[in-house]
Amino acid sequence: MSPVRDEDVNYFSQFLGEFQGETDRGSALVGAALIDERLHRLLESHFIECKESNELIKGSNAPLGSFSTRIKMAYCLDLITELKYKECELIRRIRNEFAHQVHGLTFTDNKVYDLCNNLHANTPDGTRLDGNARQLYINSVILVSLALWYRPEYNKPDRARHREWSYQLSS
After folding, report:
1. Do residues 24 and 138 lie in contact, with contact meaning Cβ atoms separated by under 8 Å?
2. Helix, strand and coil percent figures for the chain, each rounded to 5
3. Measuring CA to CA, which residue among 42, 124, 120, 135 is closest to residue 88?
4. In this structure, how many other beta carbons lie within 10 angstroms of the beta carbon of residue 78?
5. What secondary structure does DSSP assign to 27-64, as a single string?
6. Spatial separation of the C-alpha atoms in residues 123 and 169, rounded to whole Å
7. Residue 1: in which H helix or E strand, if any?
8. Cα–Cα distance between 80 and 57 in angstroms, integer?
9. Farthest-apart Cα atoms in the chain, separation
10. What is the pTM assigned to this prediction?
């Protein structure tokens, strides 16, 4: 595994600045979008290289085009742990609360607050930011995205590939 790339540090630093400066709704939507993009990249790197793989993942009508199905597929392929699966599901549910509420929702809303308190994101030194739902959400998004950042490269030896089967149809 190669060291952290400068372009990734720059990209993530720019993202963090924007992410943390967003409104509550913006943070919920943008944070989930980053995780969704990372899962898309992970699944894409795992499937065999062919047009059909792209058709499964890309586009809103693609079978794996939604955040929800990407989370489930990554977990079922053992590309993410059960803890990351649960964390991604909570991030998705929080995002959905904000996406489907027309006006006035914040991280202090009871339902959103409770969902955030179920997140397992701690700070790098292990402390937990109890009582600050927004910061719990931000930390969770950051930690999950960092865990997924180079996962496609780590998974390279396990990428699906075409095989020859002894009982396959002949052409």
Report:
1. no
2. 65, 0, 35
3. 120
4. 11
5. HHHHHHHHHHHHHHHHHHHHS-SSHHHHHHHSSTTSTT
6. 54
7. none
8. 17
9. 64
10. 0.89
The CA–CA distances, whole Å, from 50 to 47, 77, 131, 151, 169 equal: 8, 18, 47, 20, 20
The helix (run of H) or strand (run of E) holding residue 19 is helix 6-21
pLDDT, tens digit, 9 for 90 and up, residues 93-148: 999 999 998 888 999 999 999 999 999 876 666 677 677 899 999 999 999 999 99
pLDDT at 123: 62
How far is Cα 11 from Cα 118, in angstroms, rounded to an integer?
28
Length of the chain counted residue by residue: 171
Q: How much is the mean pLDDT over the chain?
A: 90
Please give the Cα distance from 134 to 148 (Å, whole number).
21
Token pair recorded at residue 22: 């967003």
